[in-house]
Amino acid sequence: MKTNLIVVVIIFIAFSFWGCIAKRTYDYKVTVVPQTYNSVTAPGDMNKAAEVINKRLNYFLSIPQNRIKLEVTGNQISLTVTKIDTSSINKIKALITGCHKLEFWETYENKEVIDYLTQANSLPGKSNVINEVGDSAGKEFNRQNPLFGFLIPRVTANGQPLPSCLIGLAALKDTTKINSYLKMSDVKALFPGDLRFFWSHNPYKYDKTKSLYELHAIKVTTGNKQAPLDGSVIISAKTATGSTYAEMIIDLKMDSGGARTWAGITRANINRCIAVVYDGHVISYPRVMNEISGGNTEITGDFTIEEANEIVNILKSGELPYELNIVEEQIKKEE
């Protein structure tokens, strides 16, 4: 009996000891500066960046305001977060430096691009180019089809292009080869100057293997080559479930300027797709059926709950005006 009591006491002491370690907290101090070539940055932009960081810490990590201290001095931001455990540090760093971006792009239809793809696939002198940069399969079809050997065009059994801005599917391991091929000067010259190629964020929904990714044809319609509309116009965002409850929807409300731009984009693209792009990857490409006025819209896509919540939290926090670099950090045990 006495031996059993001693064992219980030892176990209790061990759990108490490890419990104390688990509860140990720290103060994390970090200094960040803009990742820009300019030595002087507008004070308004620095204050906006500090506000975005503050909101991200609130929304993503649920850190109370009284544990966050932000100071803007010139073109640097000093941040102190108190009472955190070390497992939170990498998450905080990612939130500070992550320049996440939501964009709305006009698109080309598959039928408008398929002939260019066919020409690129049969361009003289390119029969072995992709194999030479890393392909080991060595199949005759791949050698004779430097593009379609890796990119599956979106056509019917009799070769008719399927309606969408989705122009092809490819295995993730082949996307880099395809990108390199499409960027070659003589291949690129075959396509319209305002055409860009964006890959999907997630695998193709109807691919059971979940190994194929979508290639989309984006149309650049602005003088500055940027998206005609982005997440900076979003004033509120929330998640909702679709009719099947498994489908996640993101409800958005835009400010007055964004609402006017969105109405113009949708009016000019009736019966065409608008690509919703997040961090450079397509997450949704709905077909516009009518003009959308008022600034209220929704994004449907193959989201998980976690992905939808991440996008909503980024939109609620706002976009950083530029990328930030961490130049100094300190972890100090809380006194």
Overview of this protein structure:
By secondary structure, the chain is of the alpha+beta class. It has 2 domains: 24-99 and 321-333, Alpha-Beta Plaits, CATH 3.30.70.3400; 100-319, 2-Layer Sandwich (Gyrase A, domain 2), CATH 3.30.1360.200. The chain is 33% helix and 29% strand. The chain has 10 helices and 15 strands. The chain has helices at residues 2-22, 43-61, 89-97, 110-121, 129-132, 140-144, 175-183, 185-188, 256-268, 305-317, and strands at residues 26-34, 68-73, 76-84, 102-107, 152-153, 166-171, 195-203, 212-219, 229-230, 234-241, 248-254, 274-278, 281-284, 296-300, 324-333. The strands form 3 sheets. Strands 4, 5, 6, 7, 8, 9, 12 and 13 form an 8-stranded antiparallel β-sheet that branches. The chain starts with a helix and ends with a strand. The model is unreliable at 14-18 (pLDDT under 50).
**What would you report as the Rg, rounded to the nearest angstrom?**
25 Å
Separate helix tally? 10
Question: What distance separates the N and C termini?
Answer: 42 Å
Biggest sheet statistics: 8 strands, antiparallel
Low-confidence stretches: 14-18
Number of domains: 2
Provide the helix percentage.
Answer: 25-40%
The assigned CATH architecture of the largest domain is 2-Layer Sandwich
* Average pLDDT: 87
Give the total of beta strands.
15
Could you say what the CATH topology of the largest domain is called? Gyrase A, domain 2
Query: Which structural class do the helices and strands define?
Result: alpha+beta
Estimated share of beta-strand residues: 25-35%
What is the 3D shape? globular
N-to-C order of helices and strands: HEHEEHEHHHEEHHEEEEEHEEEHE
User: Which CATH first-tier class of the largest domain would you pick?
Assistant: Alpha Beta
